[in-house]
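Archive entry: two folds, one per protein. Generate the first.
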Amino acid sequence: MSVLEMKVPSPGESITEVEIATWLVEDGDYVEKDQPIAEVDSDKATLELPAEESGIITLKAEEGDAVEVGAVVCHIDMSVAKPEGGEEKKETPKVEEKKEAPKAEPTKETYATGTASPAAKKILAEKGMNASDVKGSGKDGRVTKDDAVKAIPSMGTPGMGSRGVERKKLSMLRRKVAERLVSVKNETAMLTTFNEVNMQPIFDLRKEYKEDFKAKHGVGLGFMSFFTLACVRALQMYPAVNSMIDGKEMVSYDFQDISIAVSGPKGLMVPVIRNAENLTFRGVESEVKRLAIRAREGQITVDEMTGGTFTITNGGVFGSMLSTPIINPPQSAILGMHNIVNRPMAVNGEVVIQPIMYVALSYDHRIIDGKESVGFLVAVKEALENPVEFLMGGNPKKALEM
């Protein structure tokens, strides 16, 4: 017999333990080499575990088990040939004939049916109920005192609806996110500053160029490219926002790796756009689309979510008007986007309706002062309200063709 012991591979640096989220096969199944057999959760991502060889699989861990990297999670018996016609057919269980339950004797109806005893009548009167509202359990259907005590009025008190409770273990990814968020609140001097952005100039640009942009590049011209490039410019103007604390040192970066928060099947994931300062509008939109698809399909890797220097999160897609986003450690700041709503605004001395977005910057006050945080957010606002001048070099057509 040739049996392979499958061990948990290392999903990334510093990860020592994973959790068996879901087995995609059953004990005793025949599996093909490279066939996905399980999904495992690390503290950063959910990954698929492929079969290393073909054969009959024997599972050695249960769903929900936490196992160390290098531990054996299953055996694959490679000496067994593949069953003809695919998987072996399982014997269909015999269906037992259902025996009819004995019918309950119907309650004999008499003059006493639905009649309340004197004690029951008094209790029902206090509750504002009639005897006809209660099914009697006494002889011949008489409403007893106990029936009256247990009776619940149809109005004024809670009904007898479902009160089910479900208890489910948090995934390793969700537990790690919870730990990180609590540590951020406890270990940083986090503050949030707010501003508003008139999105009309971006609306006008998208209306004019979005069809040509999509036809030429195969991706839509969304808001993320404008916000990403506006943040890159502001990070270059205020390098403290693009810095981190490491012990007693402040580490600053001369590049901008922008983390983009996206919703995945296992929760919030934050893949990174590397060297965003070198990307055009097309480059940003293509990378955002690629990373979002990989996150939604559960294919994102740990490396793709590690090393960002600044984060952008968009609660507006869910309808959020305003929020205070939590810093993504070890970064020192995060920009929160929100929904866009038409609001009255003073423009050139006149009140006009404009599409407005509130933006928020949460930052670590230990290394970012108020002057830098406010200046950063003002720089973002400035670029978004004047994208042709500050993000497109005065030539939108050329900027969007690159």
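Generate the second and append.
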Amino acid sequence: MSKKNFILKSSISGLLLVFLMVIFASNNKIETYEALPKLNSNCPPGFKKNVNNECIAQNLYMQYNSSNNKGVGGLQTGLPKIRDGFSPQEIDLGRYLFFDPILSGDGTMSCASCHDPSKGFSDGQKTSTGNNKQKLKRAAPSLWNVAYLKNLFWDGRATTLEEQMQEPLFSKIEMNNSPENLVQIINSIEEYRNMFTEAYPKKDENSFIELNEIYKALAAFQSSLISLNSKYDRYAHGYHEALNKNEIEGMNVFRSFVARCAECHTPPLFTNQQFAVIGSPEPNGLPLDPGAQIPFNDSTLRGAFKVPSLRNIEKTAPYMHSGNFATLRETVEFYTKGRGHAVPKNENLIIHWHIWEPELSDYELDRLVDFLKSLTDETFTPKIPETLPSGLNPSV
């Protein structure tokens, strides 16, 4: 046989083999799911899986009781109850959904667009940008340790993550989707159907993905965002060399009855989860944001906002509900300029009694900033998916 005929016959044989493999795969319905990313069966760091395939939070603060708190801002204080018990598969499914812009009406925004891991799960803007680049009224709050929080949004109008997430998902000025379109588009993606079956094994593989399952998976992922291993935490647990001289001085100012920072930003979450009227100015002469007055229908809460956690505060500039302060130094200085000094003349706000005139020096303010930076801990930052079931690029 000539070399030319041998090559020709080999090529034909090769093509025939490929053709037969295609026919075989078609007739026997060979699935390709194994080549796709599988959901993680291990719990994220900071959680331990129990016999029921539930991820249960584990941290050193669990050894403390809040009754052991010694003075304002005591170091060894227990945490409030966390929302945990999700399966590792639910958490990982939520991770894919969180970064997927398919959740928005036009496929351009994901949850991570306003809650970017590199920006402390905020977005680095004074106020967030929504659908069609519309500027929103308030800044995006951080999601670190959100599983411990009782009220969500700056004005506390939601009490669960499932309730909270529906507003940005379906708001015309935010992600601009609809419940009907969201379930339709997720159900149209074969890989998501496979993932939901894996995360919720009681589901039939052909059953419809429901809205509450989408909400629950997103809540599971957000509840896994734990930040409790900063320099401050190592100091609080007994390693006193974790903080340097300036940071310790700043901590002492923070805890003092002069500055009174710790009375609202109570360790270890660095929030007391209450609402406070502090008289923070609105930017560019905008009218006063009524805050919690609206959802609670309470005039005493006019201008009140939820006391935010200071965890990873170094990463979430600019600051306040309106992003009015560009730096931490500007922010801490606001509290020493006098009670109600920025309240509009036509407003009679009931300023929180902790807001007064501590008259802190420049040195003390600088040390406060040093201490606040010691609260940075991004050890458990989750990995952004390299690919998404929707085929879109992960959006941050």
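Annotation attached to the second fold: The longest strand covers residues 47-49. The chain is about 30% helix and 5% strand.
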